[in-house]
Amino acid sequence: MPESQKNLWAPWRMQYLENIDAPAGGCFLCRYRDDRAGDEANHVVWRSESLLLVLNRFPYNNGHLLVAPTLHQGKLEDLPEGVLTRLMLAVRDAQRVLAAALNAQGFNIGLNLGHCAGAGLPDHLHFHIVPRWGGDTNFMPVLSDVKVIPEALTAVQRRFVETAARLGLFP
Asked: What pTM was estimated for this model as a whole?
């Protein structure tokens, strides 16, 4: 690897990765899809018949959001075209809400398809939207294996919902 290339270290995710082959209770996105009453506890910020927007319980950064179809599919080519279109529009709109709600200066937006590509849930595809700020990495992960997330998930959830309403998105 060239010296100019930088690594994104996320050692706090080991708790999740160590249990990747045997997720408790099956697919968490399908559980969330079927548990409307648990939206607040599961940090579901929005849902429709075909999509879920969920704050990541193991965030890389404050506001790390997952955008997933409600269909349990691991491949883009297996999604109906209408769902695929709505998925991409939701990614666009969620990024807009996060930018306004959290004053994010940039974003990493990605999709990991397959276990070898880093998918923690390879059979239920989902986009990651990770807000970024200049200087959002610091000494804590390097020295202490600790990532500082400055806001509770419930607070981010509330800010997302309020900002989406203000912007007229995700009714």
From this structure: 0.78
Q: What is the CA radius of gyration of the chain?
A: 16
Domain locations in the chain as residue ranges: 15-151
**Which are the contacts of 107, defined by CB distance < 8 A and separation ≥ 6?**
95, 98, 99, 129, 130, 131, 132
The conformation of residue 24, written as its DSSP 8-state character, comes to T
CA 80 – CA 73 distance, rounded (Å): 10
Please spell the DSSP secondary structure of 105-138, one letter per residue.
Answer: SEEEEEE--SGGGT-SSTTS--EEEEEE-TT---
pLDDT digits (tens, 9 = 90+) for 26-66: 899 999 999 999 999 999 999 999 999 999 998 889 999 99
Helix (H, G, I), strand (E, B) or coil at 66: strand
- What residues act catalytically? 126
Q: Which of these, 59, 62, 64, 72, lies nearest to 32 by C-alpha position?
A: 72
Segment 19-25 long-range contacts (CB within 8 Å, at least 24 positions apart):
20/115, 20/120, 23/121
Determine the CATH number of domain 15-151. 3.30.428.10
8 A C-beta contact, residue 130 and residue 107: yes
